[in-house]
Design goal:
The chain is an alpha/beta fold. 44% of the residues lie in helices and 18% in strands. The chain has helices spanning 2-17, 23-34, 58-74, 89-96, 110-119, 127-130, 155-164, 179-191, 203-211, 226-230, 278-293, 295-303, 314-335; strands at residues 47-51, 78-82, 104-109, 131-146, 170-173, 196-199, 217-221, 235-239, 265-273, 307-308. Strands 1, 2, 3, 4, 5, 6, 7, 8, 9 and 10 form a 10-stranded mixed sheet that branches.
Length: 341
């Protein structure tokens, strides 16, 4: 996760150096202007953090750690609203069309923000036209896990098994076209094996079928399967970060197992509808940053395999998202994924 943190910090510094004549500068100037504006009063009703995946997945876990602390900062209850389906598209469309008053925000990651517009022929939202990125909140590696009954302990074991019995091995992910799906596709391409992809509406239902033996492999963000790995109900095969997870020190990275190109780190962030007032965005940014940086939040995130990471401005996060489009477009093109919604 170090490289992603470095890329985001580099983006921040570059953004600060080029403010004139860009969309980013407009956002920065709007936020500076917002300092003199009255702060948004959130006393009317609870706020909603919309999550585009089922309860129990990493997006949901991160949101539920943040929600009460953001609520305390804003003096109002914050509710986590799960709207799973279509790899976050249902949730993103709902938030894009919601009233831009600061009461509705979405927490999601690279899959919904960046990959959906690249892999789907038509998506009912434009990430940078319909939303304002407020801040990143967390990053985490992907992990490949297996049912204990599958006779594999490493990526090379999976390759050998897939070649011994072609067209029989299946691998699940929390959603078609998402980061976990692309990580699986990248592994298949690098290893030159065929593993049939099985898409679920979130990590939690995929884990239930994996534990039940209905699917033998799963690729997902680290936090959700971590407890099942620790109790022996699942076997960890590899993590896709640059280094081993301190929570699973015996699990080798994909790089260590001979797949240096198999690196995938998810980031999560919060966005609001584009018409949201700059003063409101500024207050939400402050509340979210404080919630992520709270010692109890950082301790909780670290315990579940999440690395807290915030951006100091919406400008930096906006530029970072733009750069992510360029980075992942090459991977999507290589994988040859194009989907109908």
């Amino acid at each position: 996760m170090t490289m992603l943190r470095v890329r985001l910090n580099t983006t921040i510094r570059a953004t600060e150096r080029r403010l004139a004549g860009t969309v980013v500068s407009t956002i920065c100037l709007a936020l500076l202007t917002a300092v003199s504006c009255p702060a948004q009063d959130f006393s009317a009703k609870p706020l909603r953090v919309v999550v585009g995946f089922a309860p129990g997945g990493s997006n949901d876990i991160v949101a539920r750690v943040l929600a009460p602390r953001v609520g305390t900062s804003l003096g109002q209850q914050v509710i986590v609203d799960n709207r799973p389906g279509a790899n976050g598209i249902i949730a993103a469309e709902a938030v894009a069309k919601s009233q831009a008053d600061g009461y509705t925000m979405i927490l999601t990651g690279v899959s919904t923000y960046v990959l959906n517009p690249l892999v789907y022929i038509k998506v009912p939202y434009d990430t940078l036209r319909d939303f304002v990125p407020v801040t990143t909140v967390a990053v985490m590696p992907q992990i490949m896990v297996a049912h204990p009954g599958l006779p594999v302990k490493s990526l090379k074991d999976i390759v050998a098994l897939a070649r011994r019995a072609p067209n029989t091995l299946t691998g699940a992910s929390p959603g078609i076209g998402g980061l976990s799906h692309l990580t699986l596709e990248l592994f298949k391409s690098l290893a030159k094996v065929d593993i049939e992809h099985v898409a679920y509406k979130g990590t939690s239902p995929a884990l239930a079928d994996l534990v039940g033996g209905y699917v033998p492999l799963l690729v997902s963000d680290l936090p959700a399967p971590l407890p099942l790995v620790k109790t022996g109900k699942l076997r960890a095969i590899a993590v896709t970060g640059e280094t081993r997870s301190p929570l699973l020190p015996d699990v080798a990275t994909a790089r260590e197992q001979g797949f240096p190109a198999l690196q995938a780190t998810n980031w999560l962030g919060v966005m609001v509808p584009v018409r949201t007032a700059p003063a409101t965005i500024a207050r939400l940014h402050s509340a979210l940053t404080a919630a992520v940086d709270a010692p109890e939040s950082r301790e909780r995130y670290t315990s579940i395999g999440v690395d807290p990471l915030t951006s100091p401005s919406t400008a930096a996060f906006t530029t970072f998202v733009r750069e992510e489009f360029g980075r992942w477009e090459k991977v999507v093109h290589q994988a040859g994924i194009q989907l109908q919604q």
